[in-house]
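Morning F.,

Quick status update on the modeling queue. The single chain you submitted on Monday has been processed. Sequence for confirmation:
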Amino acid sequence: MMTLDEIRKNLQTTGQQSVLRFFDQLDADGKARLIAQLSELNFQSLPWLIEKYVRGAYNPPLPRDIQPISAYPREPRNAEQKALYQRARERGIQLLKEGKVAAFVVAGGQGTRLGYDGPK
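Structure tokens below.
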């Protein structure tokens, strides 16, 4: 694991020093977890990734047949939906057990706290 000084140097080199802006406000466990997470980063690849995916005009190919999603109520309204929800639940549990499910949070707003003056 990298030391905090090594992480600071790498963040400074890549222009990402603002990542540690609130470091001193974390408790000991929070600091240890953040250091562990940052130690896993490949700092050498950050400039290229930032240039390509943040500052660059990366336009991934989009499918031509994009359609609106089918929306379903939180609670099933009939027997057909109830069966569908049960199958979906069972399939979801199966995929979780197999480690094939991921989740992410999308945040809106400007990226100024990340050192980037543009939308996230």
